[in-house]
Amino acid sequence: SEQLTGRQIMDREEKQNKGNDEYNKMSMKLINDRGQERNRKVEYFRKTDKSDNDKILMRFLEPADVKGVGLLTVEYSERDDDQWLYLPALRKVRRITSSDQGDNFMGTDFTYEDIRSEKLDQHQYSVARSEVIEGHDCYVIEAVPSTEKQKKESSYSRREIWVRKDIFLTVQTKYYDKKGEYFKVEIRKDIAEVTPNIYRPNLMEMKNLKSGHTTRLGFDERKINKGLNDNIFSERELQKG
Fold this sequence. Notes:
49% strand, 4 helices, mainly beta
């Protein structure tokens, strides 16, 4: 296993842990640099098609000021992905363009780019080293954009990705901005086997080191490979709120 390339490790992570479809209900905390918190409830749907492209719907359930806000992402192999943001207060669907990818999604520390699945064919992956996190040996993978388009559109000049060697799951990612400065980190904790050979964190945290702002996600409900309906991933369903 030590001879695996960076790309082989990332391929194996996707094949081993992804699943055909997934539903999550999450508790979200937005924590500013003074420790003040805002609480939200979010649901997340994902389904992978026969071409290994994902459809993802995220929707806010609580509180009232964001209830019904949704983001629909539809990925394609041969062209740009589609992303639409629905704002129920305006009864309007706004298309998210490639120039919006680095914008933060609804006041969180996740960008529109972060919400998409990993673009394996648009990055180059190399094994930088091994490192132990919370008692588990991990590959540390360096990921850099490999296409001119991805270099232009991505917010990140590179990322460092910690993948556990025993279960091939990402447990930490460090993000470096266009100037090469480390400015954001995602940590995944309390890893559990939620269905045979598929592992997930029960807690996820994205922290912006420059602003001191943190987005924390706790997973209240999770269903994997239950056969989600394709109709969920449509503009019509998005606008139902």
